[in-house]
Specification:
transmembrane, alpha+beta, two-stranded antiparallel ribbon, 13 strands, Alpha-Beta Plaits, KIAA0319-like_C, 5-stranded antiparallel beta sheet, 6 helices
Length: 301
C-alpha cells in the first residue's frame, strides 16, 4: 500500500507515503522537450520503523476532513478510559484518510512497565470496540490491526503486510470457527485433507438422517389411521335401516338368516294347520257314526 503525494508521478521528484515494510522496484522514465528520453531502475528497501511493533491502526467510519483536533483529543480520552490508562500514555502517531468514508488513527500506548505490545493492544480493542462496546467511541470502529503484520499464522504460513491476513502454506487453510466466532485472528490451523473428510462425513450424515425421516413418513402414510366401528341402538329402527348400517360382508348372512326364519314360520304354519285338521277329523267321524247309528236305529225300529 503506497500513496503518491503532490502529483509527483509526472515530476522530476517522486514523493511516496505509507510504504509497507519490504523491497520495492521502481522504473523511472524521463523525457525532455526535444524528445530525448532515458530510463533507470531504482530499488527501495523499507525497513520496519523503530517501535512499530507497538503501533496500532484504528479505522473509523468518518471522512478525515470531518475530524477536528477537538474530536481527535476526545477519541484519545475515550480510548484511555477504555483500556484504563492515562491520556498522556496514548501517543497519536498519525491521522490518515483511508478512503473517502474512513479514517485511520495510528497510535501506541506506554504503560507503567513500558510500551504495550501491539498484539496485546489489538486484542483489548477488538473485544471492546468490535463486540461489546461497538458504539462507545465518537465514531464507529471498523477495524483494529497492528501497523506491522505480527500474525504467527500458526506456523503454517506468512503474514501479508498489506492485507494483514495469513497466506497459508499448501495443504493448510484457515480455521473459520476461530476467525468468525472466536477472537477473529487470521490463522492457518486446519489441514485441507481433514477439512475435506469432515465435510464429506457431515454431508453423508445429513443425507442419511433426511432419508430415514422420509422413509418413516412414507410408512405412516401407507398404514393410515384405522377406521373405528360405529355402534348404534337398533330397537327403534326398521329393517331397512338395519340393513344399511350392517357391513356389506354380513348382508348375505342376514338374507340367509331371514330366509331361514321365513322357512321356520312356514313350517310352524303347516304344523298348526295339521293340528286343526287333526282336530276336525274326529268331529267329522263322530258325526258320521251318529248318522249311521240313526239310520240303523230307524231300520231296526
Amino acid at each position: 500500500m503506497q500513496d503518491v503525494l503532490y502529483g509527483s508521478e509526472t515530476q522530476a521528484s517522486l514523493y511516496l507515503a505509507n510504504l509497507v515494510e519490504g523491497t520495492y522496484l521502481f522504473q523511472l522514465r524521463v523525457s525532455d522537450a526535444q524528445g530525448r528520453s532515458g530510463s533507470a531502475t531504482a530499488t527501495v528497501e523499507v525497513r520496519p520503523e523503530p517501535g512499530g511493533g507497538e503501533e496500532v491502526e484504528l479505522e473509523m467510519q468518518v471522512a478525515v476532513s470531518q475530524v477536528s483536533v477537538a474530536q481527535r483529543d476526545k477519541l484519545v480520552r475515550q480510548l484511555a478510559a477504555l483500556i484504563h490508562v492515562l491520556d498522556s500514555d496514548i501517543q497519536v502517531r498519525a491521522l490518515l484518510g483511508h478512503s473517502h468514508l474512513s479514517t485511520v488513527l495510528r497510535l501506541s500506548v506506554r504503560g507503567p512497565q513500558g510500551p504495550v505490545s501491539g498484539s496485546r493492544l489489538v486484542f483489548l480493542l477488538r473485544n471492546q470496540l468490535l463486540r461489546e462496546k461497538s458504539d462507545y467511541l465518537l465514531f464507529r470502529a471498523l477495524r483494529v490491526d497492528t501497523v506491522l503484520c505480527l500474525l504467527r499464522c500458526s506456523g503454517h504460513g506468512q503474514c501479508d503486510p498489506i492485507s494483514k491476513d495469513c497466506a497459508c502454506d499448501p495443504f493448510w487453510t484457515q480455521n473459520l470457527v476461530r476467525r468468525y466466532l472466536g477472537d477473529g485472528e487470521s490463522n492457518c490451523e486446519w489441514r485441507v485433507l481433514y477439512v475435506i473428510l469432515t465435510s464429506f462425513m457431515l454431508m453423508v450424515f445429513i443425507v442419511s438422517v433426511s432419508w430415514t425421516f422420509i422413509c418413516c413418513c412414507r410408512r405412516r402414510r401407507q398404514k393410515g389411521p384405522r377406521r373405528k366401528t360405529k355402534y348404534t341402538i337398533l330397537d327403534n329402527m326398521d329393517e331397512q335401516e338395519r340393513l344399511e348400517l350392517r357391513p356389506k360382508f354380513s348382508i348375505k348372512h342376514r338374507s340367509t338368516e331371514h330366509n331361514s326364519s321365513l322357512m321356520m314360520s312356514e313350517s310352524e304354519l303347516d304344523s298348526d294347520q295339521d293340528t286343526i285338521f287333526s282336530r276336525e277329523r274326529p268331529v267329522r267321524s263322530r258325526n258320521r257314526t251318529s248318522a249311521s247309528a240313526a239310520r240303523n236305529g230307524n231300520a231296526f225300529g
